[in-house]
Every structure is written in structure tokens, then in C-alpha cells.
Amino acid sequence: xxxxxxxxxxxxxxxxxxxxxxxxxxxxxxxxxxxxxxxxxxxxxxxxxxxxxxxxxxxxxxxxxxxxxxxxxxxxxxxxxxxxxxxxxxxxxxxxxx
Length: 98
Hints:
Blueprint: H1 5-14, E1 30-33, E2 48-51, H2 53-59, H3 64-74, H4 91-96
Antiparallel strand pairs: 1-2
């Protein structure tokens, strides 16, 4: 997926140059759909984040709660920073605002 340089700079600023999921500083990054594109067809930039290559590969097409359970089970030391910004209870409301 291609994003304009302006959008990438905005995302980097919003995320303080850190991976949306683990919080590591981004040297290289990939663009990821927070709600997977394969399950929820939404191309708006509000559904996109920048993350490290490792997190993007492991998250694949999982929802955040699936990703959280996967990481908690296999990588218990990894902090999932993005969960603090995500409201599982109001998931449908969040989808509507995208």
C-alpha cells in the first residue's frame, strides 16, 4: 500500500516514531490495517498505522483482540502499545467513525 509522504509524516508524528503495536522506535516500517482489510474492507487512513516489520508479520490479518491473545500466549514480554488506544467494547462504534 502506498501513502503520501504527508500522511506518513502525520502518522509518524501521531505515533511518536514508534511501532503502533510494540512501541519500538521505527527504523523501517510497514503500513498496516488496524482492522484487517481481508475482514473489514476499509481503506481510510484512520484505519492505518505504521508498525515494525516483525509486528506486521505476526499480526497478519488478525483483529486486535486476536493479536493480543496470540502475543500474550507466545510472546508474553511484548507490550502491545496499540491496545491502549483501542476500545474493544465500542468496536462497532469505532468502525462507524472510520
